Amino acid sequence: MSTIHWTENHTHQSARWHSENAAPLPQRTIVADDRTKADDAYRQACEGTALLWRGDFHNARQLLQAMGRRIDRKPPRLSTSPSENFHLHRRSSSHRARVLGKLLVPLDDDYTLTLRRAPNVRQACLEAYGPSKGPMAVSLRELLGVIGAHQWRLKGIDVPALGTRIHPHYGVFAPVRGEYVDLVAHTPLPPAARHSAATSTAFDLGTGTGVLAAVLAHRGINRVMATDISPRALACARENVHRLALTDRIDVSGPGLFPEGRADLIVCNPPWLPARPTGPIEQGVYDPDSTMLHSFLAGLPAHLRPGGEGWLILSDLAEHLDLRTRQQLLDALQAAQLHVVGKIDTQPRHPRSQDAADPLHTARSAETTSLWRLIPAP
């Protein structure tokens, strides 16, 4: 168990260290409070020293913002290479997270945050971390993410294709990009699913919140098997299925990719970028070496019923960033002995695609999200 140590009021103290992104244990920790200057805090954090906050909670948030502004004074340099820009952007983001992650807050053994004007974070922490294992220290930046995730879980995210809301959990990719949901909601079902609605079966691989499984059930699929490798995603999907009163139509199982048996329709929306995630949220975006993509393609023919289709939902952002070529994708389809019977495209609607200040704007503005309709090659 990792433990941080510091001296306070001439007394040696310690607490369990926790980081969802597996940030390394700070080698040195000092106490900071309302008297701490932003320049000093920024310098200490850049040198690797963690600052355990003992002052006002709102002042801590302001200090975090001030440290962020000092990081932003040195924007990352840009290259003419899209892939190099991507890696520079990720390196800059990693540096930012590393520095801002040095501002820590203490949590008591019941997740109480004993700072002046601090919110009640016990329920948010219980949802994110599970039952407490005793007092611990976390970065303020991570705790703010936990609080934000709790609010999303309470309020939910409107999904027009369902006419209701989906409630994401901490660490589970939220369906904030509605274009991929709409693709699944409006693409014509394969003949095998249309002609035998009473016995139709679909798999939703990598279900996350369960949103696509719910859309398939909403469209009349009789039985949907939803899988994921993440225990958090499985718990989230089960809760959403229960909220939507679809427990008689949707089975959530895992951890794993393919369930047993065959289906008339198999849907997969894998992470779109072949890179390594640095934390639980990024697992919905980054897929090292396109492992999930290749696993889906390789297993698809053996799990489809006659007349069935596989639907691959994939953005071409990786192609615009020179992380994967279109030919590599086509070669992967051929290697899996799959035939493309159709492709439906849509343009992104999220704000970042219109943000000219985004260092990846050129690639994002050209992005297309596609639903590839696949069948076993004849």
TrEMBL record:
Annotated Pfam families: MTS
Region named Disordered: 1-26, 344-363
Question: Where does the sequence pass through the membrane?
Answer: none
Keywords, alphabetical: Methyltransferase, Transferase
Where is each Methyltransferase small domain found?
A: 198-315
What Gene Ontology molecular-function terms does this entry list?
A: nucleic acid binding; protein-glutamine N-methyltransferase activity
Comp. bias regions, Polar residues: 1-16
Q: Name one GO biological process term.
A: methylation
Compositional bias (Basic and acidic residues) at which positions?
346-355
Entry-linked SUPFAM superfamilies: S-adenosyl-L-methionine-dependent methyltransferases (SSF53335)
Is the Calcium keyword given for this protein?
Answer: no
Task: Name the domain of life.
Answer: Bacteria
Coiled-coil regions in this chain? none
Recorded protein name is Methylase
